[in-house]
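Input record (one chain):
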Amino acid sequence: MKRGKIEIIRKETNVVNGRRQQDETSFYKCWCEVQSLNTVEKYEALQTGLEDTIVFKVRNCRKMEEIRLHLKEFYAVYKGTEFKIYDAAPMYTDNNRVLLKCRAVA
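The corresponding structure, as predicted from the sequence alone:
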């Protein structure tokens, strides 16, 4: 398993002078372990065309809970690559960890 730093960015839409404006702010930076998909998930990802799928294992905290509740507002950056977060699920065996399932943005 590879370890590294991941940055979670929040996208917020505000109305300024009657026009929508999207702002991006750094929400959370943390250490992560990069994991591969299990066999079933890998097969499903290939079937749906999500070849660039990756799983980050991060520590569970209040900010992770907010990310889980509002997935569409966040994306992740790892080693300069942007990843769209499509699932954030706590691990069954370790409640102190969350698995962020992401796919690379083309």
